[in-house]
Amino acid sequence: MSMQLGDGERTHEPVLLAEVVDWLGASKGSVFIDCTVGLGGHAEAILRACDGSRLIGVDRDLEALKLARERLAGFGDRFQAVHANFDQLAAVMMSHNVSAADGVLADLGVSSLQLDTPERGFSFATDSPLDMRMDQTTGAAAAELVRDLTEGELADLIFEYGEERGARKIARAIVRERQRREISTTKQLADIVVRALRVPGRWRIHPATRTFQALRLAVNSELQSLSAFIPVAVAALARGGRLAIISFHSLEDRIVKRSFQLESGRCLCEGLIRTTAPKQAAAASREGGDVVCARCGARRRVAVLTRKPIRPSAEEIRRNPRSRSARLRVCERL
Predict the structure, then answer these.
(1) Which of 2-6, 195-199, 240-244, 315-319 has the lowest mean pLDDT?
(2) Cβ-contact 43, 68 below 8 angstroms
(3) pLDDT in tens, 183-232
(4) Taking all residues of the chain, what is their mean pLDDT, rounded to a whole number?
(5) What does the pLDDT read at residue 270?
(6) 3-class SS of residue 276
(7) Which pLDDT belongs to residue 8?
(8) Domain that holds residue 43
(9) Using CA atoms, how far apart are residues 205 and 320, in angstroms rounded to an integer?
(10) Contact indicator for 46, 55 with CB cutoff of 8 Å
(11) Is 130 domain-assigned?
């Protein structure tokens, strides 16, 4: 399924669409929450799978949310759109009188709308303002981080969030350049990275890709929000309800995998003595889980259904190259 976006030239195709519908059990109906509804591709398929379904679509991007509302208007009050970040799930459910959900979805990818809209500053394909905020109503833009962080802070950010080996060279080049002039556009930053890394010839992956990823993750606090979101999403599920998360790079997938392991009761203390503190045990009991280890937070609340992440088929990757790095993991509430 694809969607025309305004100018008729850009399309959005949700990744792993059939797999998401299947693993969430959308054909059985009931209450679903798409915590990153974006342009509504997954949401539409979930609602079409069963006439009795209700879906709450959450997104921090107002422009995407507006398009999702337009796309899903035909479903009437079966679809409700909410402007919020996914780590605010508990508050969203409370405000919509939902005590438990049968399926929760989070697609962590940057949408085609965001990538293909130059003024959003997510891509260096065109020379655009260095923004990268998913919610343009709040927070500091990428240009502000590039302007204000020290060389050491920039190096640490690019290394940690971008897994970029040349982080120190890039940070040094950024500081040197900003002493001469303001770095305010995507092309300026991309050119700085290319010069700093001294990568000759053509590239299969642009040298600035990891730096842009690092800034995007930092600007939107994506990894921190993801870590906070997963325990809340598990608590939001009805018994037998499923949580499905699509990630697109190793940092995200690592958090999802580790969080699912902890929520399934696997202790990750690596040989430390397991203890069960009374307070943690009581809290876990109220939330429907048994504490396994009070140190690492392991508690038995879900069964992990995907031992290895589900990847797109060769046909989907051919049709939609942006899906190639997608990884779907699913767990079920006990």
Answers:
(1) 2-6
(2) yes
(3) 999 999 999 999 999 877 677 788 999 999 999 999 999 999 999 999 99
(4) 88
(5) 66
(6) coil
(7) 36
(8) 3-113+222-264+303-333
(9) 17
(10) yes
(11) no
CB 47 within 8 A of CB 78: yes
Q: What would the two tokens of residue 219 be?
A: 């600007």
Long-range contacts for 159-162 (Cβ within 8 Å, ≥24 apart)?
159/214, 160/214, 161/213, 161/214, 161/215, 161/217, 161/218, 161/223, 161/251, 162/210, 162/211, 162/212, 162/213, 162/214
* Alpha carbons 134 and 122: distance in angstroms, whole number: 9
- The reply to whether 126 falls in a domain is no
Place of tokens 């120190």: 168
57 exposed, middle or buried (CB, 10 Å; 0-12, 13-18, 19+)? buried
Q: Kind of pairing, strands 327-333 and 302-304? A: antiparallel
Residues 97 and 149 in one domain: no
* Tokens of residue 26, six digits: 């959308």
Complete DSSP assignment for 69-129? HHHTGGGGGGEEEEES-GGGHHHHHHHTT-S-EEEEEEE-SPPHHHHH-GGG---SSS--B
Identify whether residues 141 and 100 lie together within a single domain: no
Does residue 226 sit within a domain? yes
Q: Identify the band that residue 42 occupies on the pLDDT scale cut at 50, 70 and 90.
A: very high
What does the pLDDT average to over 76-98?
Answer: 95
Phi and psi dihedrals of 246, rounded to 5?
-105, 120
| Amino acid type, 323 | S
Which two three-digit tokens encode residue 96? 């919509």
